[in-house]
Amino acid sequence: MDIQSQEIQTKAIKYTMKENGEVIGRVSLFFITNDLHGEPYGLVEDVFVNDAYRGKGIGTMLLQHVIDEAKKQGCRKLLAQSRYGKNGVHLLYERLGFTDHGKNFRMDFVR
């Protein structure tokens, strides 16, 4: 038995919102494919809204762009991750139609 590797190209889109040249919010959408399905799925990463702009709809606008693009690109699902204790983000995701679907696991590599 041997393990063979094959590089898979991925696509991502980064949305940034600025005011007076300053980044006040951002989010990235990654498109991931695998051999199990013909359609990609979307992964939401790096959701950020500057503290001074929270509660003003910035996160909602950015995530709505991501949702619309994932649909446009034919994604079969869209995943968004969040840590425990980030209740505001959890409520935002739920308000936009995401459901709590379980846990994810992580392994950090110290550099």
Features of the shown structure:
111 residues; alpha+beta; Aminopeptidase; four-stranded mixed sheet; 4 strands; GNAT family N-acetyltransferase; acyltransferase; Acyl_CoA_acyltransferase
Structure description:
With 111 residues, the protein is an alpha+beta fold. The chain has one domain (11-95): Aminopeptidase (3-Layer(aba) Sandwich), CATH 3.40.630.30. Helix content is 22%, strand content 29%. It contains 2 helices and 4 strands; from the N terminus they run E-E-E-H-E-H. The chain has helices at residues 58-72, 87-95; strands at 11-19, 22-32, 41-49, 78-80. A 4-stranded mixed β-sheet has the order 1-2-3-4, covered by helices on one side. Strand 1 (11-19) and strand 2 (22-32) form a beta hairpin. The radius of gyration is 16 Å and the shape is globular. The model has no long low-confidence stretch (mean pLDDT 94). Residues 1-111 form the N-acetyltransferase domain. GO terms for molecular function: acyltransferase activity, transferring groups other than amino-acyl groups. Keywords: Acyltransferase, Transferase.
